[in-house]
Each structure stands twice: as C-alpha cells, then as structure tokens.
Design goal:
- This protein has 64 residues and is mainly alpha-helical.
- It contains 4 helices and no strands.
- The longest helix has 14 residues.
Amino acid sequence: MSALTIKTKETNPFKLQKKAKLIETLADLDNEVLEKLVELKNSQKAIAMVTNAESWQTIKEFIM
C-alpha cells in the first residue's frame, strides 16, 4: 500500500478526520471512475443536485 499526501482547506480536526476517511474509501476506485467523479465535482449543476436532499434521494433510487 502506498501513502499519499493530500492538501485540503479544512481546518476543523473533526471534519478533517471524516474527510480523510471518505477519501480513503474512494482510494480503491479505478482511475476511470475517479476521473468521472472529478468531472461531476467540476459541474455546478451536479453539485447542486447532490447537495439537494430530494434530488440526491432521486439519484440514489435511480442508480441503486
């Protein structure tokens, strides 16, 4: 297993710990999948949809 250092703007140690655990969960994804997630991250429309509780529930029900 390799180690990786990631810079973040988060300063709250509790939020930082949670963010680290979330990133570790994503670490085993294929690069192609990560690239697609980054593409979504760069879309304001996608961000709006996943931060809206109703839209997120609809997305989850559709793909899961």
